[in-house]
Amino acid sequence: MTEFTTSRDGTTIAYETIGSGPSLVLVDGAMCYRDFGPCRSLAEHLKNQFSVTFYDRRGRGESGNTEPYAPEREYEDLAAVIDAIGGDAYVLGFSSGGALALQAAAAGVPMKKVASYEAPYVGINQRKGRTPDYLADLQALLAKDDREGALGYFMVDMVGGPKYLPLMFKLMPKVLTQLKAVAPTLPNDARVMNTFTAPTATLAKISVPTLVMGGSKAKPNMTKAVADVAAAVPGSTHKTLPGQTHQVKDAAIAPELVTFFV
Description:
By secondary structure, the chain is of the alpha/beta class.
């Protein structure tokens, strides 16, 4: 059942809770929300061990989208969700949602423990001899309402996915429609990631137990990103999940979460 809470700036945030046990909040990465992405499946996988809450980040699904945007507003969104379910929660973030969860913990959002999976502090890829401005490029594409172009730029140029991905999504019209609906939020993830370099001074402020995870099949720059985060967070636990890519399987990550959180 969908429930709603209100963030500090008045933005309505939609969330859902299933299961029973200690509270665990899941934070999605770019383009994902409750009905598109890994969180619902993982929540189903963990509902016998946790009371699992997953929510639509602002601008996605049923959540509002108050402007102007700043990463701090998303820290406040997460805090509002945690408060709405009674506080005292564990938090797991995927990809840029992992960066969001870590940075929120550093900013003092109350949580018992925090875990991240492959927060993509992978640097900025050179493009035709220049260092691109990801945020400006995304904003320029969206200003022309070129949502497919923004999606392709994000998935290929920024993330480093294969060049055929945009064509593949054209062959899946339902998926493309879902992606285009949240394409305007891509600049938000670029702002969360800033220079795509691990903010070591910020991460050093995290005072709660932290689990930093990556997959054994990650690209070298992602493996380094995960290691950089683990080194920056005082006393963190660093785990490499065998055989996993950026799209980690529920069966691979769930046991690590049960062990770490419970």
